[in-house]
Amino acid sequence: MLTIKDLQAKIGEKQILNGINLEVKPGEVHAIMGPNGSGKSTLASVLAGREEYEVTGGEVDFLGKDLLEMAPEERAREGVFLAFQYPVEIPGVSTINFMKTALNQIREHRGQPALDAVSFLSLMKEKMKLVEIDQSLLSRALNEGFSGGEKKRNEIFQMAMLEPKLSILDETDSGLDIDALKVVANGVNKLRNKNNAVIVVTHYQRLLDYIVPDYVHVLYKGKIVKSGTKDLALELEAKGYDWIKDEVALA
Amino acid sequence: MSVTTIKKNITSDISGAIQQTVNSFPLLKEKRNEAWHTFQQLSMPATKNEEYKYTPVTRLLEKNFSFPTANPSGHLSTLQDFSIPELDANIIVFVNGVFSQEHSSIFSNNSEISILTMEDAIVQQTEVCLKHLSAYIDLKADALANWNTAAWTNGVFIHIPAGTTIEKPVVIHHIHDTRNGQVVSIGRNLVVLEKNSAVTIVEKFDSIGDANHFSNCITEAVVAEYAELNLYTIQNDSGKRFQYGLTQIHQADSSRVNTYTFSLNGKLIRNNLQLTLNGEGIESHMYGLYLLTGDTLADNHTVVDHKKPNSFSNELYKGIMDEDSKGVFNGKIFVRPQAQKTNAFQANRNILLTDKATVYTKPQLEIWADDVKCSHGCTSGQLDEEALFYLRSRGIGKETAQAMMLYAFAAELLDNVKHPVIKRYLDNVISERLHKNF
Amino acid sequence: MSNDNQVLEEFTSREYEHGWTTDIEADSAPKGLNEGIIRFISAKKNEPQWMLDWRLDAYAKWTKMKEPTWPNVHYPPINYQDVIYYSAPKKSDKTKKLEDVDPELIKTFEKLGISLTEQKRLTGIAVDAVIDSVSVATTFKETLGELGIIFCSFSEAVHNHPELVKKYMGSVVPVSDNYFAALNSAVFTDGSFCYIPKGVRCPMELSTYFRINAANTGQFERTLIIADEGSYVSYLEGCTAPMRDENQLHAAVVEIYAMKDAEVKYSTVQNWYPGDKNGKGGIYNFVTKRGLCFGDHSKISWTQVETGSAITWKYPSCILKGDYSMGEFYSVAVTNNYQQADTGTKMIHIGKHTKSRIVSKGISAGHSQNSYRGQVHIMKRAENARNFSQCDSLLMGDKCGAHTFPYIDVENKSARIEHEATTSKIGEDQIFYCLQRGIDEESAVALIVNGYAKEVLNQLPMEFAVEAQKLLALTLEGSVG
Questions:
Q1: To bridge A49 with a disulfide, which of A72, B184, B366, C1 should be the other Cys (CB 3.0-4.6 Å)?
Q2: Side-chain half-sphere exposure of C61, counting CA atoms within 13 A
Q3: What is the pTM of this model?
Q4: Domain extent at residue C157
Q5: Which residues of C touch B340 (CB under 8 A)?
Q6: How many domains does chain A have?
């Protein structure tokens, strides 16, 4: 589904990604871990098409298309979803209205007719249950005055609504207490199937107790320096990142 | 005296001042002449002039002064009544606009640092002095500024070389001795801070006697890269003082300026404070407090002009108007097209204590750049009745409760005063005022 | 929410959509202004002597006045002798039965989305349609008449209700109030008149639709709304004009008089032709709107969505004379290309316990300049007056400007005034977030802008709100990226 080859990127004059290679197949969950400043969030942002980052080399193939050539909204319409680490607030625009606009533009892209108000509402009700989010929250201005947990749940709700093929969860666990974490993880798990894939970007292992990855990759200084199974995450939890740094230094 | 008469008479004052200018400084003479011509073209500000809408300077001068002026000679036996207790400072005293060697004491002068009277500076530091004099004020706009530029008699010149910090503040006393009649003084200060230098300056206005007196005082400051200027203006004179002040500060990259304007008493106070932020990474704070009683009119007009990107300005002015007093605040923020990523904030808060007290406030944002964060807020109200009641229900007398709350309102400004001795002095003056009068 | 989507669906049209002209034979005065022209207008309208005298008095005052220069707008001097002060579609006559109206005119208004044929209307909105200088049709007159409501053209009111006109005309906006009000008083050609009797709640929205059609013509209409004790009316005003290369002058006056316990809501969607992308042409919109809350507990609320005009100079205001009276001003002003807007409000608190609320949302794009100018004045005897003002600016692009000039004058200690203002731009983060959810950039901007202006748009009656949202999006078209 997603093939990243030797991806390099910088912001301003600062080189952050130094040749990432990654292959994600349908049905898989990949976790990307690493110490602060290793380039995890940059990778997520580059895949979503944030313009501050300049891709300086490499290629990304998404379902046979060149992802790097696409505008951010095209990527979204093709099925790439980024759950933001810091979801923005948009005053005066309700989540419901926002989602309706997004969903109908995506449907149009897929050649599907726009949903009428009734079918939209029933779809929404169904997805709301997944993330245990209240309708009153969705009627409010997007993320405005939401708690950290509410914002993250809203991200997963949007993921449920848009049914992406590839979801990238950027530090979705940050700022969540354990109950909220469970709700969010539970939502993600219910959305998993054999046709979609998830990339979980996280610093800590705790989210991976609930969203169990098939593969774990360690990112350090803009490169994947180690890959393994979920056991690698546990090892990192127990031993910290220093031994990885040492290994890299030795190599 | 009619408007034309007052102008004619002031004009003759000015022409007298220009005659006295030493002819060996043609550039100075030229500057004075130019201002004189502009003064003649401009009319004295009337209330139909937007900038003087609520402040009838010209009418008050007509009513209370006779021009041309002939200042009586002043005499000051001791400075003690007017000095800031325990402040270890360089002190420069002017009595009726004339430098008083007797009461002045300058410690910080050395081969590089100059703290001089303007009179001496013109002779000893001709080049620096004339390069910066009137270089940054907009003389097209205001007749009073031209009057000053053409006719100033003396003032203070401060030049701090690069990398030098003057530890002892410079206190400038403008004292009017009116025991033998009205006094009009035209003062001019010039402050030049080279790269990475720093100084604290206090200007203080006082008087002896009870005749009307007027001061027209301009301070120009040039603040180079990484330099820091702290400028205090303390206006706490008798109800016979009329005052026009213009402070023009020109800032370069990464410089810092803090201004503190305390207007506590006087008949008419008009302060124009104008900061030009002509660089990046600049930080400017403007603090003002006006506590007015009697029929005092205090008018603060401020301008912050952001000309380059990435600078920060913050302004906080608070006022308490008692009795028949009138407060005016006009705060302009300009963000020029180039000045992206500007952060500019302004707040003006007012309390009216009587039915006859008034306040006119006009915050004004003019923004031509899109990537900026700017806000201004202003409020006007009474003391919070709920809070007042709460204090009283705990057994605190009404007067005390009110004083406490007013003090708390004013204290926000004191919190921002950096110099501990100046802060203590101002704190004493303000607490005494609030307890005594409210 | 469905509103927003209607906006998006119709977010396709590319230009000022009301820019066409109608080929209607017009009856015009020669260019220029003098006493003769005023007599001509008055005679054309068959006016009584008192009306002519009033006009001549206004003209005499106007000749002694100077055009104001304080607004933050710039335009070449207007030659007031180069304007046609009277133009009327030929077939209109005073009987104004719908079947007598020129079918071209009915079509004109239908093209604008205004149906003058009552049975076709789905909702109850009574319309007075004014083209160039005269009222051509007023609908639902009879229905309203049953309730004692008078809703007719100004000219009709002069003939049929002279006592009301004489008493209230100029009582809120005096003849010599300002340069443009004086000009209007001298040459106004028509407008709407409305009287709501005691205790009557007007059952439908009343609406005036203004259209400038003829070239070189100034439009000078005058609206007078009188709300008697305990009455209520909601009034809507819409405006459009054809695209023409030369600038056209519009100087209107609106007066609202609210008696005890009366409430008037006045909403405007102003979409005069703004000029082309290079700032050529467009309407000069110099309008005086003022409401007098004369009686205790009366309330006047202004809502405006200003998207059109090359230059807007307009300050809908409230004089809060009655105790406990209340004034509101909700405004969205959008400028793009080379438009200039200087708009805001005055809230003059005279009575005790008076309240006012100001919400102004400015949006500047292109090379435009957008100024908010407002005054809150608490007079000496206005005990316990309250004001809250929120005044925000949104900037799109780095060639435009946003300016705020609020005057706050407080002469009574018991007043409580709060004024907040912010300036910001549409955040790149906000746009990226929308893009990441598959929404294209123009839609994202429309969403964000409508969200920003929501507090004001919510004040508009439903139909107007939809139109207003469409206009916001259209006005800002092409201003991003």
A1: A72
A2: 20
A3: 0.81
A4: 2-476
A5: 398
A6: 1
